[in-house]
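Request:
Um, any thoughts?
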Amino acid sequence: MMTTTSRREFLRASSLAMAGALVGGTTILSQQSPTSVGPLKPALVEDLVAANRILAEYGVLDAFGHVSVRHDRNPDRFVISRSVAPALVTSGDLIEYDLDGRGMNVKGRAEYSERFIHAEIYRARRDVNAVVHAHAPSLIPFGVSSTPLRPIYHMAGFIAEGVPVFDIRASSGMTDMLVKDAGKGRALAQALGNKPAVLMRGHGVAVVGPALPFAVGRSIYLELNARIQMQALALGGSVIYLDPEEAREIEKSGENRSYERAWELWKRKVSGR
């Protein structure tokens, strides 16, 4: 027969065990990955795969770098490939992420460590639906020198207001230069502000757009503008850049900024059709 003292001890132990189970259950639930919101539309999957291959074809991406798209079913999700060279991306490589950088269907696959670039830009910029991160060599000098990247021909009119430079040391001190967590991603998104691109000192660039053709087109023509600008500077003498008003008129005209004609060409080139 259980005494009053032993009954109290039993109830106390039972209460502690139940509390521990509840706490443990909460911990387990908090560590679970969020549920997928479902697949992208087939056309968007096709465009994301094509975007990777187009940027590789035009030398903006090599074995490194990546491109993502905001999920069409939920603005708090985005889709990006597993860690693989962009030219090799297929629809089977795509992974859905939330804005904390947690993957839904990783299944043991290697992930891009810098997915936080994408997550934090999508969190900060609701107008952005596609993000490119590249290491194009032509852009690196403008992130480490006092010479700013400026629009030198009409296809680069979208940088009329300038391209900011993100120096990871300012927010994170000495690092391996990679944006591998949310804090670094937030600092990068803050440096980007409302601009279409941000240079990353000694690293590369992040380019954004309201859709994949915009982010891809801007990435291609930003890299080309950098090469043309360096050629013009190498000639010596003064360089005549686009006037900000000219650049704004170019953007307002819409002929170049939609990239519709170019997008069709680029997709055909990488699809072999």
Q: What stands out?
A: The CA atoms of residues 61 and 203 lie 13 Å apart. Residues 13-30 have pLDDT under 50 and may be disordered. The chain is about 45% helix and 10% strand.
